[in-house]
């Protein structure tokens, strides 16, 4: 299976980083195809914790070529901070490649992201404040700055000037902020040019050449299906395509080259930021699941909203991504519950929905219809085969498989790299 896409099926933080890392030994190239440092992936190797934001999780595996694809937005300050932090811990980051077409996040877009959120007041989205939305908006408005622009100073200056015409009006006249200086921004961006130059490639060519040579390429998504700009809970979404189609546009490969699409899902559900979440638990129940799962964001440290597994979301993710396999993570977190609810459908104003309601208002009003599965008490963190799991844990996984209609190929039973059960190999 040489070309495999890994996507989140819920609202992010499903354990995509761990899933990518787990596959590391069998992979030659890992391409991140969307998002930027709004992502936060925690990978635990031999008890050592690594928190990645912008870098693909593949950077932690020796022999893997990590690539930042054209669909990613890059904050250069964060990029070099992350590289230095890994180098200090003895990791080799010299294989990293960056697409010449990747857009850069200039510092003014961080400011605009945070200020826009403040001005939205009650309608705010709860963004990560990393400048992601404004940078993708610039890309679509054709006033973005790309990595390759750093190598032509006069072009760079023209582009910064062009971008700032409207932005300075907005900042000064609407937001009551200081005007951003073209020279300052240009100089700041140029200060990274020499360091980034050796990493710049035509990532589409590198990826396609690797596939032609029979190598295995993993396409790593940031964020997730329900945060996708087209298929998520708009407007409470991020600004990129985090679904499988985004891998083709964000890395420069054709859909005919893809062999498998792997969805990563928690055994329950979490969400950070605002927006609808039908199975959300409040009060003590929510606190309990948050504590058990250690559900606090890697990027902003915010407590994650927690709820039960939602099969309507899982089926939807299976459909819009064309999932071939599921990786279910954090099954160990459910140990000790007497009964585990799984949402199998919604009820909206007395009407049952087995599939995602077609309009946002209904989704906001959706009440979960639960089935209850018997729990287990045995510690499962040491399980390495399906048969090692208690019968009720096996039944829980088989139930998720039935209701989501996708085979569960890998089960996560702990944070460490080795804490997983592989039922079906997809690489
Ligand atoms: P990502 O953004 O999808 O890569 O996910 P995050 O790293 O933000 O959040 C997933 C969290 O769950 C991380 O802290 C992981 O170390 C942890 N994790 C992943 N898989 C498992 C698992 O199977 N069991 C447990 N207990 N933790 C896991
Ligand atoms: P990973 O890759 C969870 C959420 C934010 C906010 C919304 C928009 O770790 O799964 P943005 O800054 O992207 O404009 O914020 O999206 N969000 C995430 N939530 N995991 C992520 O990434 C996220 N990236 C963005 O909380 O609600
Ligand atoms: Mg995360």
Structure, explained:
With 427 residues, the chain is of the alpha/beta class. 33% of the residues lie in helices and 20% in strands. The chain contains 13 helices and 20 strands. A ten-stranded mixed β-sheet has the order 9-7-5-2-10-1-11-15-19-20, with helices on both faces. Strands 14, 16, 17 and 18 form a four-stranded mixed β-sheet that branches. A hairpin with a 2-residue loop joins strand 16 (339-348) and strand 17 (351-353). Helix 3 (107-120) packs across helix 4 and helix 5 (153-174) packs across helix 6 (182-190). It starts with a strand and ends in a 5-residue tail after the last strand. The model has no long low-confidence stretch (mean pLDDT 96). Bound molecules: guanosine-5'-diphosphate, 6-O-phosphoryl inosine monophosphate (IMO) and magnesium ion. The site of magnesium ion (MG) has 6 residues, from loops.
Q: Helix share of residues?
A: 25-40%
Rounded Rg: 22 Å
- Sheet bearing the most strands, described? 10 strands, mixed
The molecules bound to the chains, other than polymers, are: guanosine-5'-diphosphate, 6-O-phosphoryl inosine monophosphate, magnesium ion
Mean pLDDT: 96
Describe the strand arrangement of the main beta sheet, using strand numbers.
9-7-5-2-10-1-11-15-19-20
Low-pLDDT runs of 5+ residues are none
**What's the N-to-C terminus distance?**
5 Å
Instruction: Classify the secondary structure makeup into a structural class.
Output: alpha/beta
Number of helices: 13
- Strand coverage percent: 15-25%
